[in-house]
């Protein structure tokens, strides 16, 4: 047991629509498995995120509906908060980027970078409409992506390859308002001097040996081509630039990506302010012993392994130009950037517009959250792109959760409830009994080591292998044949129940809802596994109301160790923990989503 401070920084879901299961397989479930494990192991976890609400796609959605961008953000923020809570994601604070606190923290980081000379003004080419002479915001310019050749790239970003663009980069740019070719005139912006961090970023990445090799190699390769990047954009929706003559301008804002990553810090500060100890965030951001793990899909690596560390280094005064920390003091860089690959669906890339999509809320209406969490952990895109198919989802659920883990729980507790009515008193244990218990209790070491290093797929496979051992033990010992030898039968059932208690601990980070049920089926009282809750709060600075996700996770009893069961604890006939899925669901779901298109 240790009590390290661990920041779990979870990628911010973008609030232009509901999130699908591909999104939550990248940032959501892995970050929660990690946090729940670390809390069970006795560490002090702060898990933060929120909805990312600035930037062009929100304004495009708002324009399409004829409403303001805040209305779009408010609606999707509420949907996303509901979805992530339904999945049991245990955020200490899930907030949003349109809070007054977030704007203030983002502006402080900008000013700290400016003070140390790492942002500088530069004249660049900005688009105007030739017919009206007015600035054309990035979102109103479309063209062909110069990097991947995609036709519908926007002035700030290509949605196909995910690269950040400038309008002047687009091939054949056109105005979306009237189809004319924009004219490019000089426009002043602020740039982040990324080349000034090449050495510091290289030194830092050189010490990050434990990262997933694909993430580390990708991050190191980014350093070969560092160019200054525009910190500000031509857009009217976002955080204002905190400088005289700039603050009031309606056509310039901080670029959405440069404020979104500051969200990890601003959410930590908001969390601290809400606890009544406004300085509490510093234990996760400034203690040399604290660790920070960032979770995301692979399309976001550049912002977490290059841009955000550069912002932190610059704020601390740690780039080529030196400098001193801003008013918050020096801030910790990420310990690890934990990136997943992509989940596809039935062999296709997820696409909301082509309806190749399974939204989280639709999924949770028909299936248990833990069934999806299990699939993501055991078959998700941890190291390579993987495919979600309904047939495989059903197979995993039925063969592994229901027939493997659920059956072990059900038949052992049923037999003990029927024959004894309580956890039986064991006699002398045999070698077979002791072997099983040493396997199940020993697994806390092996599975915990894997979880601490974010090898989650190996971790759940090892936990399920142990479940298999317990099932085999039960079949070999066949307590149902021991009617004539109740003393031996009771020893076998006691051993099986202790093994279940251990396996339930091992599986708790992955299956937090089932873990609470199994705890109760074993006669446990109170809360084993705490679930997040939605709380309606008011903005700490401007009084606006919004929902947050939070929870009192330290009140749960879940610990990362073998906990002895107590003979004599009353047991009732169990209800099934998992639901077997009928073969017909595969065809139903394929009809609902499958072919895409119509
Ligand atoms: Zn592209």
TrEMBL record:
InterPro entries: Anticodon_Met, Met-tRNA_ligase_1, Met-tRNA_synth, Methionyl/Leucyl_tRNA_Synth, MetRS_core, MetRS_Zn, Rossmann-like_a/b/a_fold, tRNAsynth_Ia_anticodon-bd. Residues 7-412 form the Methionyl/Leucyl tRNA synthetase domain. A motif ('HIGH' region) lies at residues 13-23. It comes from the Bacteria. It is found in: Cytoplasm. PANTHER family: METHIONINE--TRNA LIGASE, METHIONINE--TRNA LIGASE, CYTOPLASMIC. This is Methionine--tRNA ligase. It comes from Klenkia terrae.
